Amino acid sequence: MKMKTDGHSKTAILIFANSPEEESRRKSLLHGTELFRDIMTRTLLEVTKTGLPYFHFDEQHQRGSDFGSRFLNAMEDVFDIGYQYVIAIGADIPRISASQILSAADRLKKDEIVIGPSTDGGFYLIGLHKSQFLKQEMIQLPWQTSDLRAHLVNNISSKGLNICILKILSDIDRVEDLDGLILGHKNIPYSIFKYLSLLTRCERIAEITIEKHFDSTFLKSHYNKGSPEHGLFSY
């Protein structure tokens, strides 16, 4: 469990994400290790910008026989350290930002449960107070299905608790998700964009989009269709 703590905040961030190698293996994406390594680098950068303490649980530090139990055990572990609020995120959302995480932290202090919905019916972020963390009920949710978020929202609403829904974002589970990111968004890190254009079969679309949104001088020196470069370019 990799961590950075400041010893003062009552709110902690949980990054619940497999290593790039494991993520690539599970999702079977060409050049996936490089892709998820860059996404993780960007995620850590945005998390660091918040100034909040954070903990990263990869596959070596997760406990449980299925996704739901591993995720909830990780949240419980962070609460048990002594934090009153936990904001849990994954690392397959290229466009998550520090401002979104800080917005979630602010809403938590207003006694709200915060959910960041993903396009697949799940969520890329959940934040709640320790008193709202009902592990035995949450384990019954249909984890890793398109009905997860709906069941979660209904469960929260049935208890009369307040919910804050953030902007919907796309995660990366399949090649089709990469196509959607290329066609639908321009404000993603440049290195990740290069991987997306390489991994999908949209090379000409990627070239047109790059020409439209990036300076031509920059492109001549940085864009190499033959092989992706390592590193992070975020704007």
Description:
The protein has 235 residues and is of the alpha/beta class. It is built from ten helices and seven strands. It has two domains: 164 residues, Alpha-Beta Complex (Spore Coat Polysaccharide Biosynthesis Protein SpsA, Chain A), CATH 3.90.550; 48 residues, no CATH class. It has a seven-stranded mixed sheet, with helices on both faces. Helix 2 packs across helix 4. The protein is globular. The C terminus is likely disordered.
How would you summarize the topology of this molecule?
Blueprint: E1 2-4, E2 11-16, H1 20-27, H2 32-50, E3 54-57, H3 67-81, E4 85-89, H4 98-108, E5 112-117, E6 123-129, H5 135-138, H6 148-158, E7 162-165, H7 175-184, H8 190-199, H9 203-213, H10 216-222
Parallel strand pairs: 2-3, 2-4, 5-7
Antiparallel strand pairs: 1-3, 4-6, 5-6
Helix pairs in contact: 1-2, 2-4, 2-8, 7-8, 8-9
**What gap, in angstroms, lies between the N and C termini?**
29 Å
**CATH superfamily membership of the largest domain, which one?**
Spore Coat Polysaccharide Biosynthesis Protein SpsA, Chain A
Q: Report the top-level CATH class of the largest domain.
A: Alpha Beta
The arrangement of helices and strands along the chain is EEHHEHEHEEHHEHHHH
Strand order of the largest sheet: 1-3-2-4-6-5-7
Number of domains: 2
Average pLDDT, all residues:
78
Number of helices: 10
Q: Tell me the number of strands.
A: 7
Radius of gyration over alpha carbons?
A: 18 Å
Strand content: 5-15%
- Biggest sheet character: 7 strands, mixed
Low-confidence segments: 201-235
Shape type:
globular
By secondary-structure content and strand pairing, the structural class works out as alpha/beta
Instruction: From the 3D structure, determine the CATH topology of the largest domain.
Output: Spore Coat Polysaccharide Biosynthesis Protein SpsA, Chain A
Residue share in helix: 40-55%
In CATH, the architecture of the largest domain is Alpha-Beta Complex
